[in-house]
Amino acid sequence: MPNTILEQLAQTLEERKQADPNTSYVAKLHKKGQDTILKKVGEEATEVVIASKGGNKEQIIYETADLWFHSMVMLSYHNLGPDDVLNELARRFGLSGIEEKANRAEDKGL
Length: 110
Hints:
CATH topology of the domain at 5-79: Helix Hairpins
Order of helices and strands: HHHHHH
């Protein structure tokens, strides 16, 4: 059984992918496809920026939760979950941001 809220959310998203789009928001997003999901991620990211600029902590938390939710929907669209992202963060832990960015540039042949 999942033991973190992210794992619980990921499990619920997987279950709802195949649900009736008339009764499930997640199923409706999946049925509309990646472009609709990505549009929602972009909208929520913009709302996080606006909330942050406004400085209201409750609004920042609320909008960040929306962004995380829609990012999780996007991950589920690609059959990925929070552990995939957390593993990448763990891999980067202890690397300086400058070093990590240089490694990505090397990987891309820049």
